[in-house]
Structures are given as C-alpha cells and as structure tokens.
Amino acid sequence: MSNRLCILIAEPSFLIREGLKTLLSNQGQPYRLEEFDAPVDDLDKLINRINPDLVLLNPKLVVRLVSLPRYSDNNFEPYYIGLFEPGTPPHIQSKFDQMIWLDAEKSELNKVMEKVLKHLRNGLSEPENNSLSERELSILKLVALGHTNNEIADKLFISAHTVMTHRKNITRKLGIKTVSGLTVYAILNQLIKIEEIQGAD
Amino acid sequence: MHIHKDLKMAEVIHMNHHLLPVLNRFDIYLGFGERTVEAVCIDHKVNVDFFLEIVNTFHDSSYFPLRHLQSFKASMLIDYLHKTHAYYLDVKIPEIGRYISEIAQTSDFEEIHRKLLKDFFNQYQHELTNHINKEEQGVYPYVLRLEKALESEDANAETIKELQQYSIIEYEKDHDDVEAKLFDLKNILIKYLPPVHNNKLLNLIVHEIFELERDLNNHGHIEDLILVPIVENMEKELLSRHPKRHSNV
C-alpha cells in the first residue's frame, strides 16, 4: 500500500479546483491527484477505476446521485467530502462524511482539511502496525488454501461480514489484492505448503 | 503544460519520454530534427487533432479530451487501440516474461519459489490476453460494424438489430482483476521475494512493470473517455435513422 494519498477532485469550476489544490498543498502531505470537471454518469465506475482515498465531490456533477460507492471487493472505502453550494438539500449533505461550503472562510477550510487528512493519515499503513494479527494470519491461510469467505466464516464461527473486514485489512497491510497473490505470499512466508492447496486454479 | 501542434516533436519527448512507445503506435520514430508536431503528423499521414488528444491524455491523467471527439473516425481509434494491444502482447509481456524466467533461473531460489513466480506471471499473462481477445473479437468489430452502417446509407438489418439490443455502455470492462494482479506482482517483487543475485535485472523488471501499468491505465482511460463517447454518438445517430419498432412480445 502506497503511503501517498490518492485524491480525486470532481468539481466543474477551474478556480475552485485550483483553490482546493492550494488547500491540500498547505497540508504538506504527498498526494496523487485526479481531477474531473465534466458530469459523471457512472460514479461507481469512476471510483473503482481511480480507487481514491479521498474524494472531493461537487454533487452537482453526478447525474442522479443515489448513493456514494462505499465498498468493493478489491478497494478500500474512500472518504467523501461534499463541495456544497448554498441550497444543497440535506438529503444530499447526509450522504457525505464531511462537507465544505464553497463560501466558507479560509480558517474554517483549513481546519476541515487538516482534520480529514489527519484522519486519513492514521488509516494509511504505518510500518509499526503493518504485521498481521493472529486472526488475520489464520484467515490469510484459509484464503490462500482456496476457501471462500462463507467457508472461512463457518470454520472460525464468525460472520461473513467479519471475514470481509479482515480480508480488507490484510489487503491493506500487505498490498496484495488477489487470492492468487495472497497464496504466493503465504507460500513465500511459509504460512502454508503448496501441497496443502486444494482446488487451486 | 499541454502538448500542441506547434511544439517541436523533439521537445515533446524532452517533456515526457514515456510517450515514445505511444508515438511508435502511429509509426512515428525518433529522428524528428526541428520539425513540429503538426509537420511530423502530416509526414506520417496522422490526424493531428487525434494525435494530440491521445498524447495529452497520456501525458496528463487529468486531461479531458472533449474538443475534437466528433471529428474522429472510430476506426482510427480502434486502429490505435489495436496497436496498443499488439504492443502489450507481442512486445512488453514477452519481454517481462523473459526477464522473470531469467531471474527465476539465475537466483538460488528454491524450486517452489521459482515455480510460484513464473506461474503467477503466467496467470497474469493469461488473464490479460483473454481480456484483450474479448475486446478484439467482440467490442471492436461491433464498433467497426456501426461505422460501416453509418457510412453506407442502407445499413444492414442485422447491425441495426444488434444495435437495438446492445449498447457500448453495457460493455462492462473487467479490467479490475487484471489490474489487481499486476498490482500484486509489483508488491511481491518489491516486498516479498527472497533476495536475488541479479539486482539490476530485478530493478529492470520492477521498472518495466511500472511502465506497463502506466500504459494500461492510459489505455483504459482512452477507452472510457474517447472510445465510449464516440460510440455512444454513433449509436444515437444510427438509432435516430432507424427508430426502434415496438413489438408486443
């Protein structure tokens, strides 16, 4: 997992995009940026392709905003900041994790940005907490051996949802997304033996 | 800074040498002298506007090609995408594959590690090839049929029928898993492979994989930002000429 944040700005106004970039740069953190200024038909697809940690989104830009893409198998949950103009309705506001009013004062804007980036930085993989927990190790082994989430849930007496959460954390810590990649990792680190693998592809 | 037609082609390469393989897909090779982008394109019978949209999309991932979309023929774009595929399958992937075999052979890995590395890469190669074949055999011919139907006044009935049942938007790209495998391969090499003797070669492999990833991302970008809108327009145009007949079924 890279330590550089991936940030997506989707906002029609050039001036506002430049302003947001200045705000972000003031935080002194390295980041990679993707910018969009045209209407987004398929937000899920965009988020899946770019896989951002942070999304600054003007809801006006999304054609039919129903819900914000939160989770897909390979990706991590992005943090959404809404870029709101006066009059943005509450049911839109409530979809976002954080909001920025485009007419807000400088100090207010800096405060929000600092808070969000601090939150995200804590979520990034730090060297010291990068090792897998016992639980994660046992789940990793089962995944590498070819078991499905449901099978793992049954074996360990936990819910499939919990298995998914652990898998998300494993992927984040190791930087490996696919089952076959996890299998390679498990064998290289002698967590499993190749003879044990059942029904490998 | 965006690349424009009056820049010297040599300056373009100074700005971003990663564009070299992209230029090669237009059959443009080094040795530009002082000629401008426009002059080189004319020499090679390449549409300058199209060339600029492609290189700018590659050069700046936030660049949004909008201006000349209508003027591009889909077949021009398909030709470019096709050459990109050929570059992956005939040049880049075999090259990286050779390096991977070499590093597996020349390191004193255990046999099992050797096999793991090669198998993982082979799986990736297999998935990428499948994905590319799907586009080459399904989507691209469909687009070319649309273009043909638009050019000839009486479109063949089958194309129209196909069009009424299918749209480019439904074409879900399964780039995802292919991308994830390449991402994993990078981390396996960078973080988890046991030490090797030939570090220069390993550096080279990692470098090549980053280059390939950049190129693939751009390829997906061009499909989403240029191909899909062009084809949507073609579909609309054709459908307006041949309105859907409602049946009771």
Characterise the protein shown here:
Chain A has 201 residues and is α/β, with parallel strands linked by helices. Helices cover 43% and strands 13% of the residues of chain A. Chain A has eight helices and five strands; from the N terminus they run βαβαββαβααααα. Chain A has a five-stranded parallel sheet, covered by helices on one side. In chain A, strand 1, helix 1 and strand 2 (31-36) form a beta-alpha-beta unit. In chain A, helix 5 packs across helix 7 (160-174), helix 5 crosses helix 8 and helix 6 (149-156) crosses helix 7 (160-174). By secondary structure, chain B is mostly helical. Chain B has two domains: 9-59, no CATH class; 73-241, no CATH class. In chain B, helix 5 runs antiparallel to helix 6 (111-151), helix 5 (74-106) runs antiparallel to helix 9 and helix 6 (111-151) runs antiparallel to helix 8. The longest helix of chain B is centred in the C-terminal third of the chain and has 43 residues, at 199-241. Chain B starts with 8 loop residues before the first helix and ends in an 8-residue tail after the last helix. The model of chain B has no long low-confidence stretch (mean pLDDT 87).
Characteristics of this structure?
heterodimer; A: 201 residues; Arc Repressor Mutant, subunit A; five-stranded parallel sheet; B: 249 residues; mainly alpha
Question: Layout of SSEs?
Answer:
The complex is a heterodimer of chains A (201) and B (249).
Chain A: E1 5-10, H1 14-26, E2 31-36, H2 43-50, E3 54-57, E4 79-84, H3 90-93, E5 98-101, H4 106-123, H5 134-144, H6 149-156, H7 160-174, H8 179-188
Parallel strand pairs in A: 1-2, 1-3, 3-4, 4-5
Chain B: H1 9-15, H2 20-24, H3 37-43, H4 48-59, H5 74-106, H6 111-151, H7 157-165, H8 175-192, H9 199-241
- What best-fitting shape of chain B do the alpha-carbon axes yield? globular
Mean pLDDT of chain B: 87
Main sheet overview of chain A: 5 strands, parallel
Could you tell me the CATH topology label of the largest domain in chain A.
Rossmann fold
Number of helices of chain B: 9
Task: Report the largest inter-chain contact.
Answer: A-B, 24 and 26 residues
Q: Figure out the total of helices of chain A.
A: 8
Count of individual domains of chain A: 2
The CATH class assignment of the largest domain in chain A is Alpha Beta
- The whole-number mean of residue pLDDT values of chain A reads 85
Strand residues, percent of chain B? under 5%
Query: Can you summarize the main beta sheet of chain B?
Result: none
Please mark out the parts of chain B with pLDDT under 50 across 5 or more consecutive residues, or reply none.
none
CATH superfamily membership of the largest domain in chain A, which one?
A: Response regulator
The N- to C-terminal Cα distance of chain A equals 26 Å
**Fraction of helical residues of chain B:** over 70%
Secondary-structure element string of chain A: EHEHEEHEHHHHH
Count of DSSP strands of chain A: 5
